[in-house]
Amino acid sequence: MSKSRKEPASNLNIIVIGATGCGKTLFTRTLCERVKGYQVQGSFRESSPHVLQGPLEPTQELYSVSMQLEQSSNQRSTSFTIIDTQGLVKGVALGHQLGFLAKYIDHQLERSLIEESKVKRNTKAYDTRLHACLYFIDTQLGDGLCDMDRLAIELLSSRVNVIPIIGKADTLSARQLARQKATFRRQVFDIYKIPLYGLVTLDDDDDDDDDDDDDDYSNDDQDTGGTPFTPTDISNGFYLSPSDPTLSEDENNQDSSTLKFLTAMLQHVAEKEANDDARAMVDYLKNMPLVVIGYEEDETTGQPLVIMADGMDSGTGSNMADGTILGRIYPWAVVDCCDPAHCDLERLVDLLFSSHGEMLRLDTLKRFYEQYRIDQLLSQRVEDMVTVKSKANQQQPIL
Ligand SMILES: Nc1nc2c(ncn2[C@@H]2O[C@H](COP(=O)(O)OP(=O)(O)OP(=O)(O)O)[C@@H](O)[C@H]2O)c(=O)[nH]1
Ligand SMILES: [Mg+2]
């Protein structure tokens, strides 16, 4: 691998959360297997020995693996850490589980705050702040967001960029998948208004310093959930997502209105300003929640079954250097985890390591870390005031 690189190394820390049994651990292994070709030799670290090996079992406690990745195609270098967590379980323990995860995420922000507050900072200190949470939606009960997922993503969205994922996509038909996606999008964005990654708040204040574009969108009369603009692109039908030919026109039209506006606005920015970030965001919003499929594992070793790429007719997946594919064999077909026609693993890899990496880091810094810092300063100030007041009370002479 080339040693000369144009960009300095950046780091990316992601956490995988969701209901028990929805495919988080197998996804973690599949992603690590997928990026193995970019791994710098000797850079692999794990929180305890052999966490990615052995038969798949329910995850009992949080673990992490880290590696340095170098993609020669774009000369990017990334210090990557992925953290897999114990599955969420409905019932009395859920509060405890969510509390633990919230504390864990806050603790990473706290570590940066402590480091930043030092007079002499350690420039080599590793930044452990979490840049994204891949949240696996529970699709076992059919359409609609269950209370557990709603509670979890509401809580997590105030601390980290939440990217929703549908795992085990091979177990759902195209029509079921499209319906699940549409229902999720409507519920999260139009009904509960949960600020997942990518949902910018479109209130009046946001437009103040962007006068040039105001006229393009101004129309307050629409039923937009508070969004003060209406790009004509929407009514022209430019936007249709999740666009699935197996859905009727009616079903396709039932997509989230908030997302339609947001996507149309970003599309406008992308075209008008040739803005790559806006373009990347449009692509993400049109396809979210992303769907993934984990490889078929050998039951005793947990390692991927060896499936040769020869004879596969798609030819678009198969990113493994040795001519094998990461996939699953069914009597009627072979599923290729890296084929964009089968699932969104490649889209996710591109999102994390290329098109959205900077946006995720920036959001973490500006949105979540800043908020955490301000909250901590305010609570410190309140504590100081209480101390001063109680001292003053003690010193007052009793009349
Ligand atoms: N068909 C199919 N099965 C999968 C997929 N991903 C995981 N599985 C299977 O689902 C079961 C649970 O997978 P895990 O990856 O352990 O699920 P998990 O979410 O980590 O479970 P917990 O650790 O208990 O939270 C295993 O038997 C996997 O083989 C997938 O994409 N497709
Ligand atoms: Mg697991």
TrEMBL record:
InterPro entries, per the entry: G_SEPTIN_dom (IPR030379), P-loop_NTPase (IPR027417)
Key words of the record: GTP-binding, Nucleotide-binding
Acidic residues bias: start-end ranges: 203-223
Span of domain Septin-type G: 8-379
GO molecular function, one term: GTP binding
Any Pfam family the entry gives: Septin
Coiled-coil stretches noted in the UniProt entry, renumbered to this chain: none
Ranges annotated as biased composition (Polar residues): 224-235
Keyword Nucleotide-binding assigned: yes
Region (Disordered): 203-254
Membership in a protein family: Belongs to the TRAFAC class TrmE-Era-EngA-EngB-Septin-like GTPase superfamily. Septin GTPase family.
Protein known as: Septin-type G domain-containing protein
Organism for this UniProt entry: Absidia glauca
